[in-house]
């Protein structure tokens, strides 16, 4: 009996582990799948809003949201230094809110609104985790994605983007801007 319970427990843990880790992720050159996320105020963001502009997407959990803050500030400086980027580069912050439930959803919305006001940006929530799964984002790391004006992935990074990687990323953004 004890052996049967141990094998059931092991099977459940294995299934949880398999579904917790993304099976695949978007690669450079792949087309961004259709998605819809929503701000706490009901503003929708989907694939259609990415088309025609260069987009940087930060996809985080509430625990990883600050991981790449230094990169976000550096992106703001880059945009200010290159006026054409102000017009053609959009930056989105999406939070995995799939752990919210009926009882905590209003708290999540309130916190998202507070943080949006605090940082002067629109925060979007992936309420059901579908975007995370469809994009193959890592569930425990910050995810950074660059999408060109045609909806093609040009950069993917999981975790905190090291300072040594920033110049290559900024060079890529400037080069992609020229092709718009």
Please describe what this structure looks like.
The chain is an alpha/beta fold. Helices cover 44% and strands 20% of the residues. The longest helix is centred in the N-terminal third of the chain and has 19 residues, at 2-20. It has helices at residues 2-20, 47-50, 69-81, 83-88, 105-119, 130-135, 163-178, and strands spanning 36-38, 44-46, 54-60, 89-96, 123-126, 143-147, 153-158. The strands form 2 sheets. A 5-stranded mixed sheet has the order 5-4-3-6-7. The chain is built from 7 helices and 7 strands; from the N terminus they run αββαβααβαβαββα.
N- to C-terminal separation?
65 Å
Computed structural class: alpha/beta
Q: Order of strands side by side in the largest beta sheet? A: 5-4-3-6-7
Roughly what is the average pLDDT, rounded to an integer? 88
H/E series, N to C?
HEEHEHHEHEHEEH
How many structural domains does the protein architecture include?
1
Poorly predicted regions are: 9-23
Gist of the model:
The chain has seven helices and seven strands, in the order αββαβααβαβαββα. It is of the alpha/beta class and 180 residues long.
Task: Record the SSE blueprint.
Elements: H1 2-20, E1 36-38, E2 44-46, H2 47-50, E3 54-60, H3 69-81, H4 83-88, E4 89-96, H5 105-119, E5 123-126, H6 130-135, E6 143-147, E7 153-158, H7 163-178
Parallel strand pairs: 3-4, 4-5
Antiparallel strand pairs: 1-2, 3-6, 6-7
């Amino acid at each position: 009996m004890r052996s049967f319970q141990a094998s059931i427990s092991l099977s459940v843990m294995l299934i949880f582990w398999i579904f917790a880790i993304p099976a695949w992720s978007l690669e450079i050159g792949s087309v961004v799948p259709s998605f819809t996320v929503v701000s706490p105020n009901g503003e929708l963001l989907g694939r259609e809003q990415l088309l025609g502009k260069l987009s940087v997407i930060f996809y985080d959990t509430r625990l990883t949201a600050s991981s790449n803050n230094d990169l976000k500030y550096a992106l703001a400086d880059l945009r200010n230094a290159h006026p054409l980027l102000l017009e053609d580069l959009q930056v989105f912050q999406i939070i995995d809110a799939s752990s919210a439930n009926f009882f905590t959803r209003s708290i999540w919305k309130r916190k998202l609104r507070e943080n949006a006001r605090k940082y002067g940006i629109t925060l979007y929530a992936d309420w059901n985790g579908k975007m995370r799964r469809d994009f193959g984002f890592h569930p425990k790391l910050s995810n950074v994605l660059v999408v060109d004006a045609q909806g093609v992935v040009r950069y993917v990074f999981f975790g905190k983007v090291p300072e040594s990687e920033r110049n290559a990323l900024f060079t890529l953004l400037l080069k992609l801007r020229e092709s718009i």
